């Protein structure tokens, strides 16, 4: 699946360290006004029922929105998730590629409100919205 992503213009995300190494690698494709992130689903992402574990999808969503916020305000600014509300709409399956986009809805001095969407080529998988705290240097 990785070869297919590369053929479609995706490149490996530059920030794949820490926890991301366990479920990634993540890929991204820059388009006119947005960036789409991708995760190829393999056996390690599945739960005992044979579909993608909800925690994998939720972790990918957090990453998608986090990176989308950084795309808009700059990746040098530090911020952390303080709330993430999600809606599981459908299950992803082995061999699917999760495609995620995110955007800022509102930004104040201290917090950012943002939302995201994860789909496959066949269906919508998850929607989410949340709040990220801007970490101001002391």
UniProtKB/TrEMBL annotation:
GO molecular function ontology, one term from the record: acyl-CoA hydrolase activity
Gene3D superfamilies with a match to the protein in the record: Hotdog Thioesterase (3.10.129.10)
CDD domains given in the database record: PaaI_thioesterase
Domain Thioesterase: 50-124
Pfam name, any one: 4HBT
Keywords assigned: Hydrolase
Coiled-coil segments on the chain, per record: none
Name of the protein this chain belongs to: Uncharacterized domain 1-containing protein
Organism: Colwellia chukchiensis
């Amino acid at each position: 699946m990785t070869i297919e992503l590369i053929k479609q213009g995706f490149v490996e995300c530059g920030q794949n360290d820490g926890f991301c190494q366990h479920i990634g690698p993540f890929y991204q494709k820059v388009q006119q006004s947005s960036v789409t992130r991708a995760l190829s689903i393999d056996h390690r992402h599945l739960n005992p029922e044979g579909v993608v574990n909800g925690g994998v999808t939720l972790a990918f969503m957090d990453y998608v929105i986090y990176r989308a916020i950084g795309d808009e305000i700059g990746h040098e600014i530090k911020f952390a998730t303080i709330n993430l509300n999600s809606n599981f709409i459908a299950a992803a399956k082995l061999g699917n590629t999760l495609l995620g986009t995110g955007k800022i809805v509102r930004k104040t001095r201290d917090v950012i409100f943002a939302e995201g969407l994860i789909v496959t080529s066949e269906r919508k998988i998850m929607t989410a919205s949340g709040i990220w705290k801007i970490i101001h240097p002391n």
